[in-house]
Amino acid sequence: MNINTQLIEQSKIDTVDFNNLNFGRVFTDHMLVCDFKDGVWQTPTISPYAPISFEPSARVFHYGQAVFEGMKAFKDDNDDVFLFRPDENFERLNKSAERLAMPPVPENVFMEGLKQLLKIDNDWIKKGLGNSLYLRPFIIATEGAIAASPAEEYKFIVICSPAQSYYAGDVRVIISEKYSRAADGGVGYAKAAGNYAAQFYPTSLAHKEGYQQIIWTDANTHEYLEEAGTMNIFFRVGDKLITAPNNDRILDGITRKSIIQIAKDNNIDVEVRRVSVSEIKEAAKAGELKEIFGSGTAAVINPIKGFKHNDFKFELPVLENSYASSFKEKLLNIQYNKSEDNYGWRVKI
Ligand SMILES: *Cc1c(COP(=O)(O)O)cnc(C)c1O
Predict the structure, then answer these.
(1) In the chain, pLDDT over 90 holds for what percent of residues?
(2) Best substitution site from 95, 232, 249, 295 to test ligand 1's pocket, by max atoms within 8 Å of Cβ?
(3) pLDDT tens digits for range 318-337
(4) What structural domains and CATH numbers belong to the chain?
(5) What is the mean pLDDT of residues 45-51?
(6) Of all atoms in ligand 1, which is nearest to the CA of residue 296?
(7) Bridge-partner residues for 47, per DSSP?
C-alpha cells in the first residue's frame, strides 16, 4: 500500500525523560492521517506530529462523531516489536464506527499504516517490562456543516505516546446507585469518545469522597455490576472468577477476553454471567470475596482495594497469590515475548 511519507527534520526524542512519563502527554515524532472524502478513503500520510486545523463547524465538535482505540506496541530484548491482538482493535474500531454512522477504515490502512508508523518511530518503543508505546487510533467527523446528520468527510488518525506502567496506587471504588455510563440500545459497547465525557462528572464526585473510580451498574436497576471506570471488571469469589457478559452496554475488552481464556486454560472456574451487587456484598460479608480487579490495555490489570455501596464499605484482603498478579504476569510475558504464545496473540512488526 502506498503511504505518503514526510519525515521530521529533527527528532525530539532527546528532550523526553523516559523515566518520568506522564501517561498520554508526550507524543512521538510522527502520526498517520487518512482522509475520507468523496465516499472513499484517500492515500494515507505519515507526517510530523503537529496541530491540524479544522472548520469550527466540523461536525465532531457539535454532534460527537468520534470513536477511538487503545493498543500498545512492545519491544523485546532483541529489539523485535510486537502488537497484541491488533486484529481485535481493528474490528472493534469499525464496530464502533458503524454504531456512530461513520465509514469503516480499510484493513490495510489500519494494519499497514500502524506497521509503517512503528517502523519510523521505532526508537520511541523502549525495552523493559512496563515500557511500551501506547497507540491511539481514532476517527473523527471533519466536514464543516452543522446539520444534524452524519458527516461526509472524516479523518482516521493514529498518534503514539510512550508509556510506563500505568495506574499505580490504591484504587477504591464507589458502586454507582444513580449514574450510568450506558443504557440498553445505546452506545456502551462502542469506544465512543462521548462515553468518556459522560463519565467525568460522576467520577469527579467520587474523587471528592476519596474514591478513585466508579463501578458502573446497569442503568435500569443499578443492581448488576458492569464495568469499573474505563475497564472491564472481574470478581473472585472463593476460587471462582466471575465477570459480566458482553452486551450493548459493556465494552468487549480485549484484555478481558484474554484473561478469560488464560483463566480457563489454567483450570480456573470462570463464570461469565450477570453479577449482582447483593451477591458481591454477601460474599464480602461471608469472607468469600477475595479479589476485584479491572482490566484494560492501559493498566492491563488494576486490583481494587476497597469498595463502597451506600453505607456498606469493604476492604479487600491482601493476598499472596492473587489471580490479578498471576494473570498480569502471564499476559505481560506474552506481550513482551518472554513466553510461548500458544494463542497467536502476539503479532511481530
Ligand atoms: C477500552 C475499554 C475497556 C478495555 O478494553 P481493552 O480492549 O481491554 O483495552 C473496557 N471498558 C471500556 C469502557 C473501555 O473503553
Answers:
(1) 95
(2) 232
(3) 998 999 999 999 999 999 99
(4) 4-163 (3.30.470.10), 172-335 (3.20.10.10)
(5) 98
(6) 8
(7) 31
